[in-house]
Write a structure and sequence with these properties.
Layout: H1 2-54, E1 59-72, H2 74-83, E2 90-93, E3 95-109, E4 112-130, E5 142-163, E6 166-188, E7 191-199, E8 207-218, E9 223-232, E10 245-256
Antiparallel strand pairs: 1-3, 1-10, 2-4, 3-4, 4-5, 5-6, 6-7, 6-8, 8-9, 9-10
Length: 257
Amino acid sequence: MKASSFFGRLAAATLLFSAVGTAAQAQVQTHRVPAYTGKAQARSVSAVRKPAASTGGAQIGIRAGVNVSDWSGDAVQSVMDLAGYTNGGVTKEMKTGFHAGLYATLPVAPGFSIEPGVLYSEKGARLVGTLPFEQLDFLNARVTATSRMAYLDVPVLAKINVTPGFYIFAGPQASFLLSNKVRVEAGALGFDAFQQDFDVKDQFRPVDFSVTGGLGYQHSSGIGVSAGYDYGLSSLDKNNRFDAQNRVIKASLNYSF
């Protein structure tokens, strides 16, 4: 009797421990499931935020580069026709300068943006005269007249992305004349004998209108390069005594923030 009572109590204790162990396992599993679910939710939130952070918006940037400028028009052609009678004694050369300033890129639609800017830009033209006598070439005598024009360019460009990174641009540009001095230099045998600047700003139009266009590449790091051409529409002489327009080739480096 005592043996059966002992085994009965032992069986009851076994059932009790089994029930407690099962409940404990169920409780552990119940706590593990929410913890795992929480981690999954945290990952899904980060996955949603990542594309939003990579979405492009309005940007500002800096641009600087080289100008190679010249004049074109009936007056310039007349000068060159007249220079033909000097047996090469007078020639026209491109003038080098620089440009630098700020711009803003404003997205309008996928692959299309508007880019206004403000840049300091050097333009002008150069005439070089030499003695048209071979017997005097050893003198290396030269007279140079250079129009040194400084403008504040305000372009409003439309940009179209052709492929990722590569784009084309075009648009109108207003240029406000800041200064215009003609520098006359003369020398021989490698020595400068004469140099003087003449202020001629008052004889030129204060605003020049042009169209500009070109192409470029913008890297995802913010660094970009571009090349363009400014085609002047306005006659430079405000008194209409001669017809000449600005022509400028530009090469630029830029950085977008």
